[in-house]
Each structure stands twice: as structure tokens, then as C-alpha cells.
Specification:
Length: 248
């Protein structure tokens, strides 16, 4: 039976974490940079433990005004420190809840910058490895993040997106564009099935682009996140595709 991991960004103040948790298999938990604090981290870790969901660190720029989605000038050393320290905070909290952080997925602008910049990708991977060399690095399919993770000796998970559109080069459509997000649950489910089953995504403009998926991301801050998650899990099950954490 084919299986896929369904991950979701949580602990970001959207208020739907408890509803989403039973529908996903991996949680990317905001670590106090772009969102979250120790209280929210602890609450999400406990929810994840109760539902058998893999705990992941979701480090991002400390730019809450822009939700960590504004690109900032940073050095590789600053990125290493950011990823390491935010991940370590979550590791200590997860341990106190009886769990363990299993993966790291950078957030927002940091994710996008590292996906296209080899030096920053290496810095993210080094920060994760310093926190725990057993961690899996989640990165955009086909990006520098995956290459850097492998070079640092980490396991990597090729990530695709249920609720974002793609460009012909396999990159995500910039959020500044009106067609960056998929607002219809049925369309998001259809895109996900096409990627998972066929290894292809239809980019804007109609071109088919090859993508390998180890894990599918659904953004937890979207207004219809719960509806999307329910639709995804239903359609995947109907297609004979099971859900389990990539790190299981």
C-alpha cells in the first residue's frame, strides 16, 4: 500500500490546531521566532503525542509583524544559530511532554531563501545537525535544502504543497501573486493526488513538472485548513493511499 506523510504548520495562533491534529501525521511547530511561545509549543507537543503525530521544529525569522514571510539579510552563521536555538527550545519542551522532535522544516522566507541559496541551505542543515543528527530535514522538492541535508548526513524528506501553485521550474508561486494559493479543497486534493500517484504537478501555464513527494504540506493558518485537511485525508484514502509520518 502506498503511504504519504501529511504535515501541517501549527502553533501559529490560527486557533485550529486541535481540529487539525487528528487529520495529519506530522506537525511543524512554531518555535517562538515568527510565532509561538513555550506555552503553545507545550500544548501542541501534548496534542501530537496524544494523536501519534510526529513532532517537528518550524524555525523562522523573528519577524512577527510579517509572520516570518519577509526576506531578511542574514549570514549563514546567523541561520545556523537560528535553526539550532529554536530547535533546541522545542526539543526540551517535547522531552518534557514525553516526546521527541523528529524533523525540522524552516518557515516562510527562511524556507524559500534556503531552497534557492546553497549557502543558506547548508546553514539550515548544519543547525539541524547540531541540534540532533537524527533529525530529518524537510525541504522543497528538488531544492538546495535537500542536497544540503544529504551532504550533512541527514535524512531528508522531499516536500510538496497541497494548497500552493507551482511554476514551470518546480518552484512555488510567490505569495505576492494573486494565484499563489489554491482556495478550493477539491482542487487541492486533486493536485495532491496527481503529485503523490503520478509524480507530476501541473504548473501555472499548463506544463507538467516532475515532483517527488515524501511529505505533503497543508498550511494550518489558512481560513479553510480543517476543510482542506478533511478533504485530503478522504480523497487519499479513497485512492488507496494511507497516511503515516515520514519519520515513522
Amino acid at each position: 500500500m502506498l503511504h504519504i506523510d501529511l504535515n501541517c504548520d501549527l502553533g501559529e495562533g490560527a486557533g485550529r490546531d486541535a481540529e487539525l491534529m487528528p487529520l495529519i501525521t506530522s506537525a511543524n511547530i512554531a518555535c517562538g521566532g515568527h510565532a509561538g511561545d513555550e506555552e503553545t509549543m507545550r500544548a501542541i507537543c501534548l496534542l501530537a503525542w496524544q494523536h501519534g503525530v510526529a513532532i517537528g521544529a518550524h524555525p523562522g525569522f523573528a519577524d512577527r509583524e510579517n509572520f516570518g514571510r519577509r526576506e531578511m539579510p542574514v549570514t549563514p552563521k546567523q541561520v545556523v544559530d537560528l535553526v539550532f536555538h529554536q530547535t533546541r527550545i522545542l526539543q526540551e519542551i517535547a522531552l518534557g511532554c514525553g516526546g521527541r522532535v523528529m524533523h525540522v522544516k524552516p518557515h516562510g522566507a527562511l524556507y524559500n531563501m534556503a531552497a534557492r541559496d546553497p549557502a543558506l541551505a547548508r546553514a539550515v542543515a548544519e543547525g539541524a545537525r547540531e541540534a540532533d543528527p537524527r533529525l530529518v530535514l524537510f525541504g522543497l522538492a528538488g531544492s538546495h535544502l535537500l542536497t544540503a541535508g544529504r551532504e550533512c548526513g541527514l535524512r531528508v524528506a522531499s516536500e510538496v504543497f497541497a494548497d500552493r501553485t507551482y511554476q514551470a521550474d518546480g518552484s512555488l508561486t510567490l505569495r505576492t501573486r494573486s494565484n499563489a494559493l489554491i482556495a478550493d479543497a477539491a482542487l487541492a486534493a486533486a493536485q495532491t493526488l496527481h503529485i503523490v500517484r503520478d509524480g507530476q504537478v501541473r504548473a501555472l501555464g499548463g506544463m507538467s513538472v516532475a515532483l517527488h513527494a515524501d511529505t505533503v504540506c497543508l498550511h494550518g493558518d489558512g481560513p479553510h485548513a480543517v476543510e482542506f485537511a478533511a478533504k485530503l485525508t478522504h480523497e487519499l484514502a479513497a485512492a488507496g493511499i494511507g497516511l503515516k509520518p515520514f519519520t515513522a
